Amino acid sequence: MAKTKTLILGVTVIIALLLLSMTGYSRERQKKNESKEKTEVAKKDTYGDLVKKAKVAEGMIKILTVENDYYFEIADSLMGRDLLIVNKVSGVPYELNDAGLNRGMEYDDKLVRFYKDEQLNKVWVTTYNPRVSASEGDAIAESVKANYRESVIEYFPIEAYGKDSTSVVIKVNKIFDGSEKSFNDVYNSISLGGTIKKDLSKILSVKVFPSNVVVKSLMTTSVVDGGVAVPLTVETTTNLVLLPEKPMKPRFADNRVGFFTTEHAYFNDVQQKVEKREFVHRWRLEPKPEDVEKYSRGEVVEPVKPIVFYIDPSTPKQWREEIKAGVLDWQAAFEAAGFKNAVIAKDVPEGDEDFDIDDVRYSVITYAASEQANAMGPSVVDPRSGEIIEADVVWWHNVMSLLHSWIQVQTGPIDPRARGNKLSDEHMASAIRFVSSHEVGHTFGLKHNMGASWSFPTDSLRSPSFTSKMGGTASSIMDYARFNYVAQPGDGVVDITPKIGVYDKFAINWAYRWLDTKTPQEELPVLNGWIREHEGDPMYWYGEQQDPKDPIDPRSQDEDLGDDVVKANRYGIMNLKRIVPNIVAWTEEEGEGFTQAGRLLMAVINQWKMYAGHVTANVGGIYINNPVMGSAEDRYVPVPRERQKESVKYLIDEVFIVPDWLFGADVWKKSYPIQMGVEYSPYTVAREMQYATFYNLLKDERLMRMFDAEATLGRAKCYTPEEMFADIHNVIFASSNAGKNLSLYERMTQKNFIDAIIVSSNKAVEKTTKKALHNNSNTCCFASKEAAFKIEPREDAQLRVLHFTSMGRVSEAVSVKRGELLKVLKLAESKRNTGDVETRNHYEDLIIRIKEALNMR
Question: What's the pTM?
Answer without folding.
Answer: 0.90
